[in-house]
Batch of 2 targets.
Target 1
Amino acid sequence: MNDVLKKPRKVYVTRTVEFNAAHRLHNPDFSDDQNREIYGKCGNAHGHGHNYELEITVSGIVDRATGFLLDMKELKKILEQEITTRFDHKHLNFDVKELRDTVPSTEILAVIVWDILTDALQHYINKEITLHEVKIHETRKNSVSYLGE
Amino acid sequence: MNDVLKKPRKVYVTRTVEFNAAHRLHNPDFSDDQNREIYGKCGNAHGHGHNYELEITVSGIVDRATGFLLDMKELKKILEQEITTRFDHKHLNFDVKELRDTVPSTEILAVIVWDILTDALQHYINKEITLHEVKIHETRKNSVSYLGE
Amino acid sequence: MNDVLKKPRKVYVTRTVEFNAAHRLHNPDFSDDQNREIYGKCGNAHGHGHNYELEITVSGIVDRATGFLLDMKELKKILEQEITTRFDHKHLNFDVKELRDTVPSTEILAVIVWDILTDALQHYINKEITLHEVKIHETRKNSVSYLGE
Amino acid sequence: MNDVLKKPRKVYVTRTVEFNAAHRLHNPDFSDDQNREIYGKCGNAHGHGHNYELEITVSGIVDRATGFLLDMKELKKILEQEITTRFDHKHLNFDVKELRDTVPSTEILAVIVWDILTDALQHYINKEITLHEVKIHETRKNSVSYLGE
Amino acid sequence: MNDVLKKPRKVYVTRTVEFNAAHRLHNPDFSDDQNREIYGKCGNAHGHGHNYELEITVSGIVDRATGFLLDMKELKKILEQEITTRFDHKHLNFDVKELRDTVPSTEILAVIVWDILTDALQHYINKEITLHEVKIHETRKNSVSYLGE
Amino acid sequence: MNDVLKKPRKVYVTRTVEFNAAHRLHNPDFSDDQNREIYGKCGNAHGHGHNYELEITVSGIVDRATGFLLDMKELKKILEQEITTRFDHKHLNFDVKELRDTVPSTEILAVIVWDILTDALQHYINKEITLHEVKIHETRKNSVSYLGE
């Protein structure tokens, strides 16, 4: 079976997850004027919110026996535990410990999701799977990618 | 010009607008247990949020001279003033006077947008334009329509 | 709370569900030539498949206390039990008892989903909720709606 | 076969077609100032363009033998001949005879497509198929529907 | 003409194609328990199916005379012959010779499409066009890329 | 604040903009037959048009104080001035000086947008922000990327 895999083949597998969250962009180290200047309407005191859509990409050599890079059920479980449970239906400024002392911009969110998933993949998956990219769509028009650079 | 309009033609014109907002589903008249039972994770104390997408549909007879149902620039201005300014980058429970004493569910949001736009269309547009439907997509999977019934 | 609902308000709530299934369009009452003529490549002996996307719309008066038409958790449970479990990751011609003696076209699928959900809504939901529309997207280009007519 | 169709079932089948065209909104009966006031940037002398997306919906009773409302291959052929050939990769103001003495707004386009398809369906399809709706998306934000009213 | 191309410019051109197919994930070398453990509901005996969406990306220097990387009509013909004809409205396990002794996972599908198109591009296109990426979306949530590594 | 940024983090920020334009693919240096052979229906004398969708990606190190790569309001202003004003509601062959002596293919459009934005970013943004990619979707099926290679 799967002779096409006699030669090692490196693929990139992307799984999309969504969460719905509130956030407020505000830096207590800045003056009110600076906050207004920098964050504009994103600094609204009670926050606003988004349907965040994350594309999580992992890479590695396809397993010759299964034809899979990795068990998607495992990846889904990790994303459920590490992303959905942590961020979904939350106010990012108050409810997520990893974001406490940050301005929860999409840039910082992408970096933190990367750090969380790098740890989680090492812990749960005993194979040569590498996190390749975390891409977060905040709206249909804005997105941020982090590749660990 | 536009002889195809000698016969009156009734069309439905839909304009899509988006706003990003936080909300919390919570009814102070309910006990904590009732709130938890009814609203689940949507009752999170600090709220969560969405990219709301609204499809606003108006109907009427196409104007024979212009070939338009209505001046889209006017409709865009009304939606900017009445929808975007009111709801975008807001926490619906705190920042929107029309939603103060409500549970800001998508159902109630659709009804309130209908009431606001019915007034606004009568005020700004001196033609036989009727609001036909307000459809709000809260997520890619959930939407609510209100047609004034 | 929710004074905007003093007047009864009828809304339409749509929930989208997806399932991935194989099917083959073939009528044993037809000759081979007729089958080829009518079903073309959709009659391929081992079947082909689709990511079916269903928009299920129910309607009724918004509940004044909760601000909801119905408990979305309940609707999700019904759709899980009655749609996903029955159709997802199945070959419609072999694995779904309701489709046994049919040509599993999108038209017939829409009608059968309507019949299943009409029963299920009566059974599970003790309120005045009416099934309004079952719309099935077979591909990005083809869809079928059934409204019980 | 298809006993579920013993009772007549009326369905709505939608087929999506796309065409890429240029147009200019300009009425020679208006003064330059009026044209500028009414059509704004849409009146640019050489025109601009869109990827038009049309949802064509026909309705009728599902055929008990085939399980289809109509032969989709036939509908595709009609849409190819009557819509794609006529409008795709054209400048609507110059290249489409039916639009010659019109302002090719989306409203007028929807009406003209309706008139063309009503004729074509009567001519090609010898069954009780009714054109139900022509919906044209001009951009992701603007669309117009015509239902023959 | 096209002086902007005096300097060689390397671009990446992506063409999207879709096919609708059935597949079953099952490895005869595994025990029933292993198959159940590894492939879960994807191992359903008669298969299930998907609307597969492929993004095929080729790269090279833009031709200074035509302004194109390559003749898109040629690329469309190759994709029609090599992808659509081979995979559309097929059961991947039975009807596609290249997939016979494989588990037709999206990973393996991406690798095989890469191998097929690498050959086809060399055969049909006498220019310096390189296949850059094959990306297959199996569902809205899962995709796999192969870049020949 | 933002201790997660103590280590420099390089991100890629993508902003999507759209414009609606007409174009005609035609090279006066070619014979009529060559033009017909090469550009087919894209050579229609009066042109045709598209809803162009551009994904503009810039990269750099996230600012530790603001949590942003750059001020999105600034990027939006640049894109408004340099892209929307130049291309939206225009006929690319007649109305855009940068495209005058070109065949306005998507390939050339991507290259020219790259050149324009490279200049503009240097001029307006006094930070280490690099243009990473210009990706233009001409239709849902065709897109071109240019990365400055």
Target 2
Amino acid sequence: MRDLLGGKGAGVAEMTKAGLPVPPGFTITTEACNAYYEAGKQFPPGMWEQALAALRIVEQQTGKTFGDRHNPLLVSVRSGAKFSMPGMMDTVLNLGLNDETVQGLVEQTGDERFAYDAYRRFIQMFSKIVLDADPREFEQKLDEYKERTGASSDAELPASALKELVAEFKQIAERQSGQPFPTDVYEQLKRAIEAVFASWNNKRAIDYRNFNKIPHNLGTAVNVQSMVFGNMGNDSGTGVAFTRNPSTGEKELYGEYLLNAQGEDVVAGIRTPSKISRLKEELPQVYEQLQEIARRLERHYRDMQDMEFTVERGRLYMLQTRSGKRSARAAVKVAVDMVEEGLISEEEAIRRSDPTQIYQLLLPRFDEEAKARAHKEGRFLARGLNASPGAAAGKAVFDADRAEELGKAGVPVVLVRPETSPDDVHGMLVSKGILTARGGATSHAAVVARGLGLPCVAGCEGIRVYEEEKLFRVVGSDVVIREGDEISIDGDTGEVFAGVIPTVEPNFEKETELQKLLSWADRIRKLGVWANADYPRDAQRAVTFGAEGIGLCRTEHMFMEQERLPIVQKMILAKTPEERQAALDQLLPFQRSDFIGIFETMVNPRTGECYPVVIRLIDPPLHEFLPNYEELLVEVTRLEATGADPEALKEKKALLDAVAAMREMNPMLGLRGCRLGLLFPEITIMQTRAILEAALEVAQKTGKKPQVKIMIPLVGHVNELREVRRQLEAVAKEVTAEAGSAVEYKFGTMIELPRAALTADQIATVADFFSFGTNDLTQTTFGFSRDDAEGKFLMKYVDGLDAPGLPEKVKILPVNPFQTIDRDGVGQLVRMAAEKGRAANPQIELGICGEHGGDPSSIEFFHEVGLDYVSCSPFRVPVARLAAAQAALSKSEKDK
Amino acid sequence: MRDLLGGKGAGVAEMTKAGLPVPPGFTITTEACNAYYEAGKQFPPGMWEQALAALRIVEQQTGKTFGDRHNPLLVSVRSGAKFSMPGMMDTVLNLGLNDETVQGLVEQTGDERFAYDAYRRFIQMFSKIVLDADPREFEQKLDEYKERTGASSDAELPASALKELVAEFKQIAERQSGQPFPTDVYEQLKRAIEAVFASWNNKRAIDYRNFNKIPHNLGTAVNVQSMVFGNMGNDSGTGVAFTRNPSTGEKELYGEYLLNAQGEDVVAGIRTPSKISRLKEELPQVYEQLQEIARRLERHYRDMQDMEFTVERGRLYMLQTRSGKRSARAAVKVAVDMVEEGLISEEEAIRRSDPTQIYQLLLPRFDEEAKARAHKEGRFLARGLNASPGAAAGKAVFDADRAEELGKAGVPVVLVRPETSPDDVHGMLVSKGILTARGGATSHAAVVARGLGLPCVAGCEGIRVYEEEKLFRVVGSDVVIREGDEISIDGDTGEVFAGVIPTVEPNFEKETELQKLLSWADRIRKLGVWANADYPRDAQRAVTFGAEGIGLCRTEHMFMEQERLPIVQKMILAKTPEERQAALDQLLPFQRSDFIGIFETMVNPRTGECYPVVIRLIDPPLHEFLPNYEELLVEVTRLEATGADPEALKEKKALLDAVAAMREMNPMLGLRGCRLGLLFPEITIMQTRAILEAALEVAQKTGKKPQVKIMIPLVGHVNELREVRRQLEAVAKEVTAEAGSAVEYKFGTMIELPRAALTADQIATVADFFSFGTNDLTQTTFGFSRDDAEGKFLMKYVDGLDAPGLPEKVKILPVNPFQTIDRDGVGQLVRMAAEKGRAANPQIELGICGEHGGDPSSIEFFHEVGLDYVSCSPFRVPVARLAAAQAALSKSEKDK
């Protein structure tokens, strides 16, 4: 139904069927829209005739006649795609008015002012949407009339003025479009339908679909519905309401309404509306009816609904219902609550949760002390609505284009607008947060920000935004924030501050609903979820987030610590094997204590048993530990040029030569990974000894046996691994002999070079486990150096390149392959290696420790390929737990 | 037979069967050798008994008895592996002598001096080979006796002195070995056999096998043969002879002999022997018999033979025959002559030719004028034997270890030795040429150098080499050449010069035998052979060498030329599209004229039709065309430090910033290849226009239609190729419209990234051809940056790494994968891409343009995979033609 009728059309149809009060209407299908485009923007044969037939039925249902000068039927014409695209497409209200039918409206309502107000609104809207006229001229003329008549709002304009305005508006429309304003109501309808079809392919809509990965070939439906009026006095009104709080997930009606107003007044945020709870006092029967409808809709759709309604002279009409957008926190709470209310199953709760939203829940928030300090220092500026949760800090920017420019350059920006409109979306996409001076919790800014997972403070009336001057002033003070000044906004509280406030991590342990959801995910998923962690504190966080092991512990970070680096440099620059060994002997106790810390941390909190820990031996080229070559070069050149300090020069020069000898053209493909260990076995031997001694010590101290897995990086040929394994086994034998008790460990390798994947059958014969290093594998498979590619061309590949002779940019890659695994290429190697590895060694354990381990789409792929676990950064562990469960559900559905 | 008996044993057995005069003997098989090693260095059961039984038969045949004090049988014990390893393994002569049997020898020969000389030689040799004694002490003692008796050569030592020497030698042997010298002749035999077995695994033998890629598990046979003596007077002698001249291939007996000498005197080069043609005068009957035997052996073996013979009192004995090592030139001439003599088929001539030798034939030689100038300048030093053809220049080095050290560091060295021995081979392997003061054309130095394809001047008696002082003096002058001084040697003429003489290319057109051989190869081979050439002069050479197309014309070399580089830099640093276009407009005519030159050159000399030319659009990162960053950094730092010339500083700083902005961490994987064209389409468009306009111009001028193939580098995703193709087609349309006549071209891509190979089915849908760029494909598949890897670890991977706890080095890779394609990994991708490409686009043309295109083993693989052509450097085209024919022959044999 949604495919054909769009979300809105399907909602209206279902509500009608369920006997809810819905203004009569009909829907032109998405199929018709697509046929319209295929026919070169012509209505497909028969479509118009069917529409007219449907219109006749609406006439019968309402007892009104379209174009009738006594009892005219007025309609709204709205778009409605399969997936909600709030504010992205166009709507025309009050269609069916002309100089004759407006008289009929006067007769029907007995309200001349209302009728001419409706008429002028129609002309204004139709001109903008259908005739593509510049709306500003209409606004100016309206302001002119308000001034002239001394009216402080639209509602105060007398009927006489409105009559004149209608005439003026028609003239403006005629001048701008070069043709008389259409008086034939059927022509009005036809052209409005065409305009809705056309709105499917306007820039805003395309941008939105690109960002939200909605296909471009779905088309939009057109909903034609008889008008009801919320602006017929104070027993009329219009509003939007969620069946639950879209920010917190609480089970309560949540929304806003305006009495004596039409729908667009609420959405546009021009008048600040009342909270829905006030309706209980203002129109108690309507409120009660709305609550009952909310219950029925939730039972029907088994999801939280976002409803639009209008009250016409005390009578409630439902205009639309759809699944409500919600914050990450609300999404989790609603899903978990609905399971407990018996509305949906646990699987359904998993299926409809969005793993990337989960990630947002775990994002840092403002440090409370720092925030208190900001208050004390007088940096608090104002408070608005907490429209979308999360904290953001960045440079204030006052237009979307500038936000896009800076944001794409990596500058954190907060977009500040009087209010936002669909024209601002491209800037919102790259901002860290949104601040608006006007509009409520369901305003454009708030809805879009929640959808994007961006912090948003809306309707912040304590600031006044001057777009042209690119600044905002704080009301009642002389504080001015200009473009480029730092500000911080708290989407959880609505507070706005000057300057940057540092952030802290949220408390995962207190997220009880999330914990519940993830515990269901754990029951469903087949993939293990491990974490990448180099330090005990990371490991601790990983366990808290539910990781069942360390999939990647990088030992080189340990080398970088301040007190160790000089020893590491001594080791690298050693002139004799003895010097090198002496440095390594100094490093051994450091490494051992690092590993002790990690082994002690990685304990299953339920069973008390040790989790597996995969420790990767040293990987980066040794020159990464040495001083920077170019800095040395500059120093030496300077010392030479000035002639000062010949002793220092000599020393620096010697160091420069040593560093120069180790430099590489392409260090990514140079002397690193297992190649280091093969050339300098004493490093590998030291690391292995540190690992095994640490495991023995922990076992002795705690009585628990660490699950040690030693991993060799950058293997390309089985002989490399074979030789390293031989060396390691010798060390293990030594350590065992010294300790008098055997140390157990598994031995494995990264699969991060194409050749390793291609010859995985050979490599599997000497490995107990494989861990796919999909970062490096992506680099070598594509021939992309990530350091160079992302800045220089990769983002253009994803966003689209200027293509000479073509109107549109050409996209080379659908997604950034470093974020989501490239299934055709890199994925093919992963699948091949998994199959070959298992065939040669059925006991082999397969995991992945690249960044893709925390990406839901990639996790789905790894599940399909049949890996044993994914390993990702600790923060992404909850994401991975959920995504892994979703992958299992989707696979088992596919297999059905 | 050769497998079991080794080359020598099989030769002797065959000669015996053919009724040739061979001293009776028997052979212990390679199987026995392997069984000996398997049993932990124990004779396998029954072996010794069989040897004794065979010895009994030899006793019957010779009428002598082993160990008999009156009529003793003496034997030689020699190694003999399947593949000839000259001088690599050990031999014991005169075995069976002790204080008693020596009396029998006196009785037999009536020559006491001879008998005791044989005895002392036996003790000396047995001590060195079997008892592992230091040979120098024996030599010193011998010299002492010569001095004491006033003998100027061994032959002048009187019997009495020799008797004493025998006693002294036995004492030396006992002292060094810690046990009495064995007097039991059976013990002598047993231990000699063991020593030969052991010699299979000595360092020299292992090194030789590694270098020549001979498997280590073949084992050696042991040949036990009754002794004949060439040192029984002037009607006796010993020599070696080739059935044809191993240097030129001329059909004539070629070799040397010494009268009154034993075999090792010739091989060791201690006395300078006579040319074989002198034998016609000294022993005419023997000479005639030898000629007849040579004819019979060639008919039997259908190959040139290398024979060892001894004349004992006028009677000729054949000791050994084997296929003779020969120079590249000789190899070709012998093969072609033998086809014309009806001895072998064309296929056989192809099969037994060595493609890498062909390459040597085409190596540069000394420039004649430069050589004449060297003569005029008095730089000529001396003339020796032209022992192995070719020219070499480099630093003189006087010991093999130093040669190895410098040679591996890339320094060209010429190894200068009094004479060489197997202990020098490791140094010879890395030298550019060999110069010895002593020894003939069949001396160790000469034989090994010819085998290695190294120029060698041997027996250069005009110089005197002082090993210890690391210098040589030119006899009759005061010229001294010390270690590190440059010298040049001409292996074709035997000349030696001081200083470096520049080289020129050989004249391929005059190599008529080679031309004939290659024309047969052309008939047999299935693979096309194309060449990589960037300039018309390279293209011309390629056609001369028989290339049938250009498989890779790199356009960026054209950018590097002096007058163009400033324009290229202007193009790269352009601040506006207009500036960039202006620079490109200037480059266009240059590129067009480049392509015109190449199209005009690439014409089939037989048919007059154009050969295909694959032109690759710009590939390297643009910063390669800019000034070096570090040099700029030093300049700027210097200008800053000295405070001089603020204008220059400002300018340099701006340039530094521009260059800095373009630098990359890993340029190999950065903004290069098709990525450049996608980001800067105007470059691709200019290049395409230049190519197509050039083709049109050539067609108009010559009436011949160039076969244009435009190739896109570094494609990883089909969308990249699709977009470039779209842009190119637009240019082609424009050029066609402007010219009024259509221009034809094919469009294809390099397959040089793993992802391209993995998704070749997708890519093939938009490509007319693939060309495998196996250099880059090897880099990305292995994760090896060639610039870094070869110097830093790859050669160690191939040569072997020190392995802690192991006595031997551990080899990681069997060969350098940049020289010979890695079939398991990179080859797997090539095969996959060929199959997927053909399946998706059956018309697709498949070639390879990496360096592997000129490597015989890789060519065999490309033939098996079914590529259409290989493309290599022009010099390697003849190699590839031959190797491709061999691949076809070997495949059709396998398929049988």
